[in-house]
């Protein structure tokens, strides 16, 4: 579990916007695209689940579940590549049966399965984004 400290700058019914400082760990974080930078890029805003009941101005600790993050990264980065390779293999092996060019059918099937993977990731990703399991959480309010 990765943690980061920040200050709550805005709240709504179930979540809070937290201002935090960009650290060296942000460069290696695969979810860095979900954070927006403020000003010169040193400070960031992150939307987090507010189960701790934090209020505006509170210093808090954010938690990122690494298992959920790894699962989401696999789904976004590896799954489309696997479908591309699988589609290309199916096209290559089906070409002699259909008396077609193996390279051409391999390319068509590979890119078709890649497009199918992108559509699937987008539709499934929208559902995952609403799931609390895949969002940062405020776990503690600091004094």
Give the SSE layout.
Elements: E1 2-11, E2 15-21, H1 25-28, E3 36-38, E4 43-49, E5 59-64, H2 66-98, H3 102-130, E6 137-142
Antiparallel strand pairs: 1-2, 1-5, 2-4, 3-4, 5-6
What keywords describe this structure?
six-stranded antiparallel sheet; alpha+beta; 6 strands
Number of domains: 2
Give the CATH superfamily of the largest domain.
Answer: Nucleic acid-binding proteins
Order of helices and strands: EEHEEEHHE
Q: What is the architecture of the largest domain at the second tier of CATH?
A: Beta Barrel
Total number of helical segments? Answer: 3
Question: Explain this structure to me?
Answer:
This protein is α+β, with helices and mostly antiparallel strands and 143 residues long. The protein has 2 domains: 2-67 and 132-142, Beta Barrel (OB fold (Dihydrolipoamide Acetyltransferase, E2P)); 73-130. The chain has 3 helices and 6 strands. It has helices spanning 25-28, 66-98, 102-130; strands spanning 2-11, 15-21, 36-38, 43-49, 59-64, 137-142. Strand 1 and strand 2 (15-21) form a beta hairpin. The model has no long low-confidence stretch (mean pLDDT 85).
At a glance:
The protein has 143 residues and is of the alpha+beta class.
